[in-house]
Amino acid sequence: MGAIMVLIIVALSRISMRIINGLEEGIELFDTEVEYIARPPRRNLAMLTITFYTLLELLIPGNPVTGWVALAAAAAMLNLLNDWHIGRPLFNRWVFSLYSIYWAMALGYLLAGLAILSGWPLLSPARHILTIGAIGFSVFIVMVFASQVHSGRTPEYRTWVLLASLSLLIAVVCRIAMSLPAFASLYHVLLSLSAILWMTAFSLFIGFFWKTLIRPSADGRRGCLPDHTQNHS
Question: Is there a domain that residue 231 lies in?
Fold first, then answer.
């Protein structure tokens, strides 16, 4: 799982730079110029601590050192969030969705560290925040954005995207509640509800994008190649 987290950081750094700064052809989210820089030192520190924690989790699970490194990974992710504090553009739906993925990663490692150091039953919720929250939501939001961009359409954050995002969020909450003694009697109900909500989110994607994805691109392109590249092919 740690390897996937590192890949998410690498991918989102590139994606966010192109989207927020208007470097992606045909995409302008803001009327004014916005300067966003994904700084390598912060990114590298986050990837290093996550990698270190992943190795320790395999070699010495439950050791206090592993717990402290998990907290270090959470702190590194929170530090990485500082790159995103660019004022009002942060509250654009697309930008804030990408921003929230890093929050999920920070919260997941924070709970993992607290679980190991304190003995609280938080390790399972931490892993579900990282899987359903960080991995699941990052895959979903990139699929929604890329499906529109690479089919020649202007990216639109429609109501169903918000509903699907909330479904994934509630699914995470359900999986966290399952691990708490207070909700032990509702274990199977919460498990089923979490699965249904997760499937609902991706079913909405398939339902709304199926026709778009099987049809030719609206701008006449083949794949992701720019027009001038295709004209010479």
Answer: no
Helix (H) / strand (E) element for 16: namely: helix 2-20
Q: Where are the alpha helices (DSSP H) in 119-186?
A: 123-128, 137-149, 159-178
* Interval 13-37: pLDDT, tens: 888 877 776 645 555 565 566 677 7
Question: Which residue matches tokens 């966010």?
Answer: 16
Q: How far apart are CA 175 and CA 173, in angstroms?
A: 5
Tally the domains of the chain: 1
Question: What is the full DSSP assignment across 17-39?
Answer: HHHHTT-STT----SS-------
Mean pLDDT of 70-84: 94
Q: Show the CA angle centred on residue 198, arms to residues 211 and 153, nearest 5°.
A: 30
Judge whether 33 lies within some domain: yes
